[in-house]
Design brief:
Blueprint: E1 19-25, E2 30-36, E3 59-62, E4 70-74, E5 78-80, E6 83-91, E7 103-108, E8 111-114, E9 132-139, E10 151-152, E11 158-169, E12 172-183, E13 195-201, E14 204-209, E15 222-229, E16 237-238, H1 241-245, H2 248-259, E17 265-271, H3 272-279, E18 298-302, E19 305-310
Parallel strand pairs: 3-12, 5-12, 9-10, 14-17, 16-18
Antiparallel strand pairs: 1-2, 4-6, 6-9, 7-8, 7-11, 11-12, 13-14, 15-17, 15-19, 18-19
């Protein structure tokens, strides 16, 4: 059984300022919400009329397509690194729009490639109609934390896509996305600022890295990964330079291997989260040894060479 309500306000003045109002009906024990907003139209996009493929695994809802109910608005669609970019998710519809974890893609040979590791963030609460959500990205800037998803170093000039938000349209999940053209100086692979110590034994380099905080890190938050050269074989994946920069465990091993052909392997001790971004999260402790285990070695290519990443046997 439905009910109709009339909202009565003065003819002059701002009685209902923009926001979300919750009403309670004491007689029937029900509640409902009313959203109020000023429908400012989105600005014109510099990419209007540009045809690009959808992002992987979702029907893509692009800002430049001119949708006026649900859209992701960047502060600029053309930036030069280093730069701070803010994106605003607008929900002016009756859809259940969820501000998802931010994902960034690069357009490579006509396909979008995800740069950031999969998010471990919990699913957020959906927006009310008329609400907005904002996120800030720092492009071409060194991160302050090992697992930062807001700071993306190592971006080369090219076309990128930022995904922030999703909703269901009948049976289809639609991703809310905006394109950004990035320009900047040439980029070369270098170790991160988190490297604190290195020591070499023949063809093996040991590297210590960690958070910038001076506070000691518990042993359970530390892990070791070994990355070495491998025979040419069918790799599980290929990493772009931008993807390596976003995975500290790869950046702080490949930067040394790539620069010194005499090295055969780099052992990196860093945070458990950084290692999990490459090898996957640790499983539950083994009932016999009580130790966590990770999945097997990962073989990949980078810049035409084949490498293998794994937990070292002598960790």
């Amino acid at each position: 059984m439905g009910r109709a309500y009339d909202l009565v306000s003065p003819a002059t003045g701002d009685c209902l300022v923009p926001g979300v109002y919750r009403f309670r009906e004491d007689r029937y024990g029900g509640t409902f919400t009313v959203s109020v907003w000023k429908p400012d139209p989105p600005p014109e996009s510099r990419f209007r009329g540009t045809a690009v493929p959808d992002l992987p695994a979702c029907a893509t809802h692009w800002f430049h397509e001119g949708e006026r109910e649900v859209y992701l608005e960047p502060t600029s669609e053309a930036v030069e690194t280093p730069v701070t970019l803010r994106v605003t998710l607008h929900d002016l519809s009756d859809q259940r729009v969820v501000p998802t974890a931010v994902q960034v893609f690069r357009l490579v040979d006509g396909e979008w490639v995800a740069l950031l590791p999969p998010s471990r963030e919990p699913r957020p609460t959906a927006l009310f109609p008329g609400q907005t959500a904002r996120r800030t990205l720092r492009l071409g800037v060194e991160p302050a934390f090992v697992d930062s998803r807001e700071t993306l170093p190592g971006l080369r000039s090219g076309r990128y896509a930022v995904l922030f938000g999703a909703y269901r349209d009948v049976e289809t999940t639609r991703c809310v996305t905006a394109m950004v053209q990035v320009t900047g100086d040439p980029v070369s692979l270098t170790p991160s600022d988190f490297v604190t110590r290195t020591s070499r034994d023949g063809g093996v380099l040991s590297v210590e890295a960690g958070p910038t905080s001076s506070a000691p890190q518990p042993d359970e938050d530390r892990a070791t990964i070994a990355v070495g050269r491998a025979p040419a074989a069918a790799p599980e994946t290929t990493f772009l330079l931008e993807q390596v920069f976003q995975r500290q465990a790869l950046r702080d091993t490949l930067a040394f291997l790539h620069a010194d052909q005499r090295l055969s392997r780099v052992r990196l001790t860093t945070t458990t989260g950084a290692v999990a971004e490459v090898l996957g999260p640790a499983s539950a402790p083994d009932t016999g040894s009580g130790e966590h285990t990770r999945r097997g070695p990962v073989t990949f290519t980078f810049d035409g060479a084949t490498y293998r990443a794994q937990v070292p046997a002598d960790k």
